[in-house]
Amino acid sequence: MPGMEKLLRGVLRYRNGVRQELIPQFERVRDNPEPTAILFTCMDSRMLPTRFCQTNVGDMFMVRNAGNLIPHSELFCGDSLNTEPAALELACIKNDINHVIVCGHSDCKAMNCLYGIRNVTSHDKDKNPFAAWLAKFGKASLNAFKEVERGSKSPLKFTGETPKHNFEAFIDPDDKFGIEDKLSQVNCLQQLQNISSYGFLKDRLESGRVRLHAMWFDIYAGDVYLFSRQAKRFVEINEETCNDLLKDCEHQKCHPIED
Ligand SMILES: [Zn+2]
């Protein structure tokens, strides 16, 4: 089993190289940590956000799970406990972080599985916790996705930071991606709605101290996308789009939707 050998050899290379660069950085942030974002992303081994965002020590918190799901607060009841709301409180309330980012990706095994089990009604959570997790917390994404699957060209509607920040989304309007990847994009946006369901964030979401963003990584092309409320779609982050995307984030005003 070569897996552990690879990791341990990696630790040796780290000790002889990058460790010396990191120690002063750890020291620098010890008494003055200033992370500016919390990133929820998938556990997929190909997802390397610290590389494609070029972030460093102290820059952002990260939470990873299968399918970058954040359970809706309605599902966080009774005796159930989840990491994701705890991480939101730690980041946004205890550490005053302003930006919450949900980052999905193409060829996501969790989203492929969620699509595959979309018509299965019950799951044995003891025998198949993966499917049970996806079915329970991915249900809202599947519901939102139905319009896309039907081939509707109308934009999907999502709740943003508050009901006044509702936004519309055209999913893959250029039809570049497969059906599971379209579900993955819908799933990212659905998580913003789920995050906004937590009462402990309400004041910060209303005042704009906490803002929600959706990113998406196209694994095989290596392209990174950010959802633009203005453009109502995921826009590739590149030299031409970066400034406009930044403005869109900074001036993330309400974009009221007519009912
Ligand atoms: Zn994934």
UniProtKB/TrEMBL annotation:
Enzyme class, UniProt record, top EC level: lyase
Listed Gene3D superfamilies: Carbonic anhydrase
Requisite cofactors: Zn(2+)
InterPro entries referenced in this protein's UniProt entry, alphabetically: Carbonic_anhydrase, Carbonic_anhydrase_sf
Transmembrane segments: none
Record carries keyword Ribonucleoprotein: no
EC annotation from Swiss-Prot or TrEMBL: 4.2.1.1
Keywords: Lyase, Metal-binding, Zinc
Catalytic activity entry: hydrogencarbonate + H(+) = CO2 + H2O
Superkingdom of origin organism: Eukaryota
Function: Reversible hydration of carbon dioxide.
Entry's family note: Belongs to the beta-class carbonic anhydrase family.
Name of protein: Carbonic anhydrase
